[in-house]
Design a protein that fits this description.
- The strands form 2 sheets. This protein has a 7-stranded mixed β-sheet.
- The N and C termini lie close together (5 Å).
- The protein has 7 helices and 14 strands.
- The longest helix is centred in the last third of the chain and has 11 residues, at 204-214.
- It has helices at 55-59, 77-80, 101-110, 112-115, 175-179, 204-214, 231-236; strands at residues 2-7, 37-41, 46-49, 69-71, 95-99, 126-130, 137-139, 142-151, 154-161, 164-167, 186-190, 218-222, 242-244, 250-252.
- Strand 3 (46-49), helix 1 and strand 4 (69-71) form a beta-alpha-beta unit.
- By secondary structure, it is α/β, with parallel strands linked by helices.
Amino acid sequence: MKITFLGTGTSCGVPVIGCKCPVCSSEDPKDKRLRCSIMVETRSTRLLVDIGPDFRQQVLPLNFRRIDGILITHSHYDHVGGMDDVRPYCKFGQINVYADAIARQAMLQMLPYCFAENRYPGVPRIELNEIHAGMPFRIGDIDILPIEVMHGKLPILGYRFGSFAYITDMKTMADDQVELLMGVDTLVVNALRFEREHHSHQLVAEAVELARRVGARRTLLTHVCHDVGRHVDANKLLPQGVRLAYDGQVLMV
């Protein structure tokens, strides 16, 4: 299974508009972070996890082939703002979108024209499906287990795909949901920055603790803001087996 990081940044992206800090001024491409999303692929199945406002820019360099499903973590704009841009992919047929009840209801309100019963010509051909934490399902040849995490006080979803798990925008997780992650080989998890507590996002130390708790061999940090420092410098501060993810990075799992 191939994992491509389409974006590893927070809601503002990096560089942040108007910021001249060393990270935002860096010429290192690994310090350029679009809004958070990954692509999960096998030879026969292609999935997205989230589809933020940078989606068009993220996929233009990639092969143009069918999208078999879009998994939504939650309905904040930086995770769903690119939904209308799937229109070109509808030439391959209807695209199924999967979300929990909270995110589903929010998207019906945010994008009513996409899900109306009588849609006008040109609207994306997408179907919104409700899924539930702890209830596995399958798309093509990929098995998916939704896992509930807390984004502050908002329950959202992370996803496990066999030995690989992807979690973003998490602050806390209940013990029974941690159990669903036990034994993952590769964990991708959000880590906003090293210092300054945030009410709804983990810091690096919290992400590292989760990785140790579930026994991940390899951990990549995503949903990273400019406060974390330059990619090359931040990696020097991380423990063995933990590194910052970067846009365009490809994993085989």
